[in-house]
Amino acid sequence: MAFDYQYSLWGLKEGSVEWLRAKHEVHNQFAYRLQELCFHSGGIYIKLGQHIGQLEYIVPQEYVQTMRASMLKRCPVSSCDQVRSVFVKELGATREKFDPIPLASASLAQVHAAKTHDGEKSLCKGCLLSYARA
User: Taking every annotated instance into account, which residue ranges of this chain make up the domain ABC1 atypical kinase-like (predicted)?
Assistant: First the structure.
């Protein structure tokens, strides 16, 4: 990454229009690469990308904008089988009566509508799915 920055700015006068344009393009390129790396790695790395999106006082704007535009809106959704495996691993049993389509998804968890053993509606929330996403 450092080499790409150096190569892209090679021979350009610092502060010139061409230098600023090249620097902007390299920032955008690496912000996109970092975003894809966070999504590919999942879990805590998505959380890291979300944090980078809040560091506008220290990180270049291209990174902040890229992370804010994607990390808060594009969290992965785990499959119904992955959710069941987390139930088995964490609770020792499956919870068959939950809606397979999540109501919401975040970097480390997702929320499903469910029913309790006595048939009352409930939310299955806070289920950490980093095991299933790993």
Answer: 71-121
CB 116 within 8 A of CB 124: no
CB 125 within 8 A of CB 109: yes
Inter-helix orientation angle 44-52/17-41, to 10°: 150
**Cβ-count burial 20-59 (b if 16+ within 10 Å, e if not):** eebbeebbbebbeebbeebbeebbebbbbbbebbeeeeeb
**Digitized pLDDT (tens) for each residue of the chain, 134 residues in all:** 888 889 999 999 999 999 999 999 999 999 999 999 998 888 889 889 989 999 999 999 999 999 988 887 777 777 778 877 877 787 776 655 777 777 777 767 777 777 777 777 766 654 444 434 44
- Three-state SS for 46? helix
DSSP state of 119: S
Q: Which two tokens stand for residue 106?
A: 């975040």
Tokens of 10: 């090679």
